Amino acid sequence: MWDRRELSLIDELLGKNAIGHLEGGEEVVGPEAFAQFQEEFLEAIPDIRLKVNKLLADNSDVCIHWSATGTHRGSGFGCNATGCPVDFQGVTWLRVKDGVIIEGWDFWNMDRLMRKMSGEAVGV
Fold this sequence. Notes:
Blueprint: H1 8-13, E1 14-21, E2 27-29, H2 30-44, E3 49-57, E4 61-71, E5 85-97, E6 100-108, H3 110-117
Parallel strand pairs: 1-6
Antiparallel strand pairs: 1-2, 3-4, 4-5, 5-6
């Protein structure tokens, strides 16, 4: 969905009232709110690429360890484009019911990404 920009998958994969608990304490409810979040992300990092490092799943839970890379080319998240490469990783935990995502939690280093996008030098 992220790499191929298949936004139609949002409606297919998320339940109507799915709750997303995002890094930073923000919550999004439903496919439309998630699509807006994704749009802002893609505005900031239009060439973002995600790699699944590890995936674990059972009947109702899916846990994904992922890595992301891209270039800060847009003004999403209130930061002027720096043209700097960005890289970050995280974990997303999803609850699935009747074949759709009903709740999810994201855990990633948002502070590191925001500091990179603000032009601040960030170590490893």
